[in-house]
Amino acid sequence: MPQHHLYQYQQDFRLESGAILPGFQLTYTTFGQLNPQHDNVVWVCHALTGNSDFTDWWCGLIGEGKLYDPADWFIICANTLGGCYGSTGPLSVNPATGKPFYHDFPEVTNRDIVAAFDLLRQELGLEEIHTVLGGSLGGQHALEWCIQRPTVFKRLIHVASNARHSPWGIAFNESQRMAIRLDPSWATDTETAGLEGMKTARAIAMLSYRHYASYDRTQQEPGNSITDNFRASSYQVYQGEKLAKRFNAYTYWILSKAMDSHNVARDRGSIEKALSQIKAKALFIGVDTDVLFPVAEQQFLHEHVPGSSFGLIHSDFGHDGFLVETDQITNTIRNFYEAEPVVALLCDDKER
């Protein structure tokens, strides 16, 4: 079974903004055992509302009999800094005040998040990572980490993500934060501040996570007489209510801002120059119906990371295909491992 752990860093942690966190903690999950050579480590980076327990949300890839079987691999994932699943975040107690940070939690960027991950990696004595794997926000983390620590990572598997968050993606995130700001409770320092606004934010997000085809297939009305109370309407409400039971608006705000901050070119001259620092064998995977991280973004990465591979996943589920289409992703990664390097890996429709 996966094991859950807590890492505590007890020194000042300077953020990219110049602000300082007076230490932090990360919760992390491990599954499997390190082999004697310590060369079987797979580090997973989770998406925006994910947690460190990858068996909750990527069980199609990780588990007994799956691509990453704990009998063969040592798999690890840490809940991101700013998160709400045990890592230091806005609901954590600020040592300076003895009260939760709430709105005083500082802005964090993806580089800050990766720097915290790397301190955990060093604490665990993991000098070599066989594969770093992530999708969406997690893909941004994995890419940034491979640039920051190019000699640590042997392979990068980057799914449905990008090198720089697009104006389109930022606009989606800002629209969601606008919904949170319009919630009157957002002005308060309480655990539930902005919760109603976050429900609307999640409904907005679903329009970027899914695709016309998936809504048409799953939310279409069975007859022709409906004039109100549509399935699609109740689905949007359901998604907001569902997230509100396990998340908070502060973390939603913080991590959506971190996603917006993603730009590997910042202070590195250009995107191309930054990507040239990657030494890992890289596989970039896109989903053909993804409107939030369109395939052109993964193709760009493939074109600018020498010797990299590209995989295309076919799905009606849009961006969420990176969580849903695990059979296709498994086949693509297996081909990547078995035939390094390759130019392109295209999953056929019959593999769906």
UniProtKB/TrEMBL annotation:
One of its GO terms (cellular component) is cytoplasm. The keyword Heme does not apply. It catalyses: L-homoserine + acetyl-CoA = O-acetyl-L-homoserine + CoA. It is found in: Cytoplasm. Pathway: Amino-acid biosynthesis; L-methionine biosynthesis via de novo pathway; O-acetyl-L-homoserine from L-homoserine: step 1/1. Pfam families: Abhydrolase_1 (PF00561). The active site is at 136 (nucleophile), 290, 319. The keyword tRNA-binding does not apply. GO terms for molecular function: homoserine O-acetyltransferase activity. It is an enzyme of class 2 (transferase). Its EC number is 2.3.1.31. Substrate binds at residues 202, 320. GO terms for biological process: homoserine metabolic process; methionine biosynthetic process. Keywords: Acyltransferase, Amino-acid biosynthesis, Cytoplasm, Methionine biosynthesis, Transferase. Its main location: cytoplasm. Transfers an acetyl group from acetyl-CoA to L-homoserine, forming acetyl-L-homoserine. Belongs to the AB hydrolase superfamily. MetX family. Homodimer. NCBIfam families: homoserO_Ac_trn. This is Homoserine O-acetyltransferase. The gene is metX.
